[in-house]
Amino acid sequence: MKLSAPIYRLKHQARILSRTEDIPLHEALDRIAAKEGIPRWSLLAVRMSAASTARTLFAHFTPRDLVLLGARPGHGKTQLSLELTVEAMKSGRQGVFFTLEYSVTDILNLFKTIGEDPAVFRNAFEFDASDSISAEYIMARLTTVPPGTVVVIDYLQLLDQKRENPELVAQVSALKTFANERSLVLVFISQIDRSFDPSIERCPGLNHVRLPNPLDLKLFNKACFLHNGELEVSAIS
């Protein structure tokens, strides 16, 4: 997300506006946010925080990583995964987004939500919403991408939804080998089971990953979990 000035300068502008026009600071902040194309300051702050989260998370990634990114519905895992591909592209890498959930229009709208112009990344970003997405399909599509490419797979639990596809553990194992050979970063978006209780734990964990079919989570080497804007990152050993 690009702003006309750093956050601290925008806040300074809001304080000046509040004094000169004798209006409450929160109203002045909202006016400044509106000039940035966002209706309220609170939304601007959330989006900047999300962008910062993506930068922080991206810094943890290295080629050959298999990353599990989990959250309950509505907690921003798809947006964060797109922001991760944006961070990759800004650093000179490529980003590929495979999804069995979203359309091209959905993703273009999500680019707008995070304040990015997809046209800027047209030579570095690939989007695939084929009904044929599976490990075999993904590997075939990635044969020519350069090392360091960040690949998002949306989402883990749908890879073996078709009976003709291999079992989930076989697909993830194949993708792990492929990522190692090609020096790619694979990010798997994951569903979280309803057993997660936010009144007890700040974020979900590996024990809350929804697994309708058997899968050894040690195939992943990193895990990221989101809830209410909180992020937890851990290594899996």
Question: Compute the gyration radius: what is it?
Answer: 20 Å
**What oligomeric state best describes the polypeptide chains here?**
single chain
pLDDT averaged residue by residue: 92
Q: What is the molecular shape?
A: globular
> What is the count of structural domains?
2
The name of the CATH topology of the largest domain is: Rossmann fold
Find the count of extended strands (DSSP E, 2+ residues): 7
At the fourth CATH level, what is the homologous superfamily of the largest domain?
P-loop containing nucleotide triphosphate hydrolases
Biggest sheet, open or closed, and with what strands and sense? 7 strands, mixed
β-strand percent reads: 15-25%
Helicity range: 25-40%
* CATH architecture descriptor name of the largest domain: 3-Layer(aba) Sandwich
Describe the protein's topology:
Layout (H helix, E strand, L loop, with lengths): L6 H15 L3 H11 L5 H18 L7 E5 L6 H14 L4 E5 L4 H10 L11 E4 L6 H7 L8 E5 L13 H15 L2 E6 L31 E6 L2 E6 L2
Parallel strand pairs: 1-5, 1-6, 2-3, 2-4, 4-5
Antiparallel strand pairs: 6-7
Q: How would you characterize this protein structure?
A:
The chain is α/β, with parallel strands linked by helices and 237 residues long. The protein folds into two domains: 7-39; 52-235, Rossmann fold (3-Layer(aba) Sandwich). It has seven helices and seven strands; from the N terminus they run αααβαβαβαβαβββ. It has a seven-stranded mixed β-sheet. It starts with 6 loop residues before the first helix and ends with a strand. The relative contact order is 0.15.
